[in-house]
Amino acid sequence: xxxxxxxxxxxxxxxxxxxxxxxxxxxxxxxxxxxxxxxxxxxxxxxxxxxxxxxxxxxxxxxxxxxxxxxxxxxxxxxxxxxxxxxxxxxxxxxxxxxxxxxxxxxxxxxxxxxxxxxxxxxxxxxxx
Length: 129
Ligand SMILES: [Zn+2]
Fold this sequence. Notes:
Layout: H1 3-15, H2 22-31, H3 38-47, E1 55-62, E2 68-72, E3 83-84, E4 91-92, E5 99-105, H4 107-118
Helix pairs in contact: 2-3
Bound molecules: zinc ion (ZN).
Residues 63, 65, 67, 69, 85, 87-88, 90 line the site of zinc ion (ZN).
């Protein structure tokens, strides 16, 4: 059940959260008793990425010591040339297994939620007995 991800995203966007990882979504879902896998969560979030969609995605390459060394626009553009971490100066070859994925909300989605919250609620339809 991935609908919960959309609910969580909406709440986070309203609260003004930014730059979150799939792990964060998983931990929120867990609090309401839903167990999500990293793979399904990441894939669902990636399916929401686009200029007219909810999310934008960011990738950052981590060095062997756990520093966020440099951003890339896609894991596919990772070269396997040795480089030096700009923080701890260790030499390493970037690995696709050590790329962090972050998401943020698109301006389009935030505007949509803003407008939505201004729309008065529909009157409740009462059941006639
Ligand atoms: Zn480092």
